[in-house]
Amino acid sequence: MNLTLYASLTTVLLAPMPGLAMDLPSSFDLRDIDGHSFIGAVRDQAYCGSCYAFGTLAAAESTWNRTHGLYDQQAIDLSEAFMVWSLSPLYDGMDGCDGGLLEDPMTAMVEHGTPLESVYPYPVQEDQWTVIEQPAGQHWDAPRYTMEDWYSIPVNDVETTRRVLHAIGAVTIGVNSDREEWHDYQGGVLNDNFRVPTQVNIAALDHAVALIGYNDETGEDGLGYWILRNSWSEEWGEDGYMRLRYTTSMSNLWSFYLIAEPWSGESLHLVNTGDIQAVPWSAGGTYNAHGVDFWGGKASSVVNQGTIGAHAQSDEALTTARGIYLWGGPGGSVRNEGLITASAFSPQGQAVAYGICLQGGEIVNQGTVTAEADSDANFTLSYGIWASNGKNDLVIENSGEIVAQTGADTLKGSAGIWSENHGRTQVTNSGSISAVSGDWAIGVAFIKGPGWLENSGTITAVASSVQPLLDYQGGVGVWANTPSVIINSGTISGYNASIASYDTTRLILQSGSDLVGPAWMAGETDVVLLNGNGMENEVFYGAETLVMHGVDWSLSGHSTFGAIQVEHGRLGIDGVIGGETTVGAHGILGGNGTLTGNVTNRGTVSPGHSIGHLTIDGNYTQSSSATLGMEIGADQADRFTVTGTASLDGTLLLVPNGYTNGGSFSMLDAGSISGVFDRVQGAAILDTELLSLSPGNLSLEVSRNSYTSLAIPHNSGLATSLDRVRPSAANDFADLLDRLDLALTTSALNNALAEMTPRIHGLATTLALDDAQSRFDSLRRRMEHFDPSPESSDRAGATTAWFEFPSHHSRYEADDASFGATKNVYGLLFGLERSTADGLILGMAGALGESRYESDSSADEGENKSLHAYLYGSWNDPLTPGGWRLGAALGTGLIDFDADRSLAFAGRATHSDHEGRLFGATVQGGYDWVIGNWILGPSVGGGWVRLDEEGFQESGADSADLSLGSRASDSLLGFAGARIAYPFQWKTFALEPELRLHWWHEFNRHSDDLQSQLAGGGDMFLTPGRDLAGDSLVMGAALEARLSPSAFAHLGYDCTLQSDNGATDHALSLRLAWTF
């Protein structure tokens, strides 16, 4: 059954609402529930450190008995011997008669269980003191009792412990018992001052017992007492039992309980949009306030969109405040979109505050959670979030704010998020988590089970005490007792440490990561993994492996790793870093610090971040596939020092850093040198000579080449201009030329120079001229071709409107002056013409065109958009279906040039937009022979186009932008060819297929040079334009149809093969005409 509550006003949530705060009796004893006992008799562990088994099985037996209604003689009695000698070999936290912790015995009861005592009795000799050691691994064939799960109880949480005792069963605890007060205890209520988890007290936890009841009757110190069952025989204490004041002997610092079956309580669901404030209550010397109190539900939930507050203040009582207290099954969840506050103050007593206290599966905080506690004279704790979920996953997501704080004195601790889950805990933080306290403060803590933290926000922990007393000392951003993964792209700050981990930890630092405070890693196989970009100046202690698998990281400080693996990206050593180092094939090792340990280079080592000095305090071995990269500046160069032996092989790569005119430089100093570089490779702009002036030393003699001496003819104009300005180039222009100088080969240098030239604009001009001639060709075909009709006289005095939809796909090969390119053209031609009886046709036409092109070898691309107007006339012999024909046309047009030029070597691109004007004319003539139904028509003619382009300025690449002068270009084309057709006619429908073959010759194929100047400086320089094709062969096919006496259609395809340009053009067109 589920019950949903909605709170929209100031509301107090307390009993008797079902499932809310429990109305507990003032006393409870598992030995007397309605006159029945649900726990077995006291026994003696004798001379054997097996208290962990007796304490754990007391909780297991009582919980099983309560769950299944077994009491008195029916109650089960489980075998401690099986746990001591059969289970303990399986767990690190149990060591037979030599003692054990409590977590592993709890886990063993869930994973394996134990048989009954009657199956495997505890082996005590008749003297009742000597224990007979047993062989390991006995009685595994016996039926075993297993438990569903186990859970932790918060430190000094009397209220939760009372509830667990009353509702579930005994609680296993650790106590400080190695004192006379315990050994000599005969009866009464024991009271002492061991109540706070100080460094000394935690170390003194030496015995496990089971709490089996409580009594709220207060003593002189104002607290009630526990009833505990010991394992020191019935002769000890009160028939083997003890009464112990709450928190005395550290009885509430280390507490656990078991459940025998899955949680099955009624689930409650609260949605709060108002204001809920707790009403405090007292019990057994404790003072409690819970804003929301849900206990025992299988999957209860709280959604807060308003305010929930719990505020408790008492002079001397153990004071506890919890904004939300939800304790139950693994489906329990809290979602906060509003404000949750908890504050606890007790001037003379202990004070503990929890913003959210959850035993359940999920917390999502998008609002604010605050917890504040303080005491003038005693122990104080505050938790923004305290959570556990047993063996199940626990998920905590924070995109809001979590704050936990106490006063600044000793004996005070705080935690933003504290997980006691022994299953996996996953914390995702994109908000803010902060803990501020006196003795210790922890941002995020993983105490029992595996932890996963992904932080892109801020985690801060500040502890102010100079001499902390509590067990968790100082301020730690993230604390992990267990195997953990920490992924950080935000800030993790700790007053004493950013990270403190005590089991295997994988720390992944991503772009944006900032650690404030050293990272302490005490696991056996800890790994620090660097992803993305960043720099870290904190110290790493104890990590076995550092792995660089990012882009660019720099480490300073004094850190030592067992091994350093540079797998991918650049790792800069800028402090004193220790570790046996391997540089992988895709890795780069650099920096200006000292790397202590031997280095094996299978990738690249390059000192500094620009010009720098890297020291290897050890031996250096370079493989045959590796590179040592050295930069050479104006008056200095990289230095590489190896205190041991430098074993050389592979490549020495020499590149300039900024402008260098050459010189002599000491490159490598080593204790000794063995081997030689297999290859010495330098930038094309440099001439280098490697010298060995003394043992253990390699030096360089460097001189500079000119751009002109290396440039191909196409780039010579630019190269000459750059040579003049290179020594004085500054700012962005210097940076551009620095990148140019990094070209390693003459070919790469010329490719980069070519990218700086206006070659794309030369290509755009050539394409515009080709497109203009192509449109004249469409007009010529219109003029030379009559629409099929029964009699030519049918067209006399007729007016015809026509439309043509051409498309072209062209491929231009690279030449000495420009790259290869692909062009796609789309457009529309339309015209209106009138015919006369003497065979004359006069018309006018217009055209819209769009030509898109892109380079095959770069990111250069552009678009020409054009608008054209034409006047044309043609004459066909009116006396015969064939005969002579003549045609001519005049045209003009506007073109908008839009181009993007890529400078890949510099990571830049330019954009330009300018206009051009077209003028042109074409003439043609021919004769059509009609032989039977065949038509054979040779043709000759020519076309002229002139293109005037305005001057313009590029933008977007700073000093690499070009200014180009105005430019005039011409195309004079002559052609000769023929067509052959065979018309068919059915009544008013006529169909005429044809084949055509033309040869074109360009009489003005050489284009003028482009005159341009770089924005960064230098003289105007000339770059050859892209020449037109000298000769072209056009092969075509068409199908023309008369659909009716006044409607005509034409579908054509042409393939053009050009010489010189190596271009191939495929054209498809559709023309429609109507005569009226």
TrEMBL record:
Belongs to the peptidase C1 family. It comes from Desulfobulbus propionicus (strain ATCC 33891 / DSM 2032 / VKM B-1956 / 1pr3). The keyword Signal applies. Gene3D superfamilies: 2.160.20.20, Autotransporter beta-domain, Cysteine proteinases. It comes from the Bacteria. This is Outer membrane autotransporter barrel domain protein. InterPro entries: Autotransporte_beta, Autotransporte_beta_dom_sf, Autotransporter_pectin_lyase_C, Papain-like_cys_pep_sf, Pectin_lyase_fold/virulence, Pept_asp_AS, Pept_cys_AS, Pept_his_AS. GO terms for biological process: proteolysis. Residues 794-1076 form the Autotransporter domain. One of its GO terms (molecular function) is cysteine-type peptidase activity. Residues 1-21 form the signal peptide.
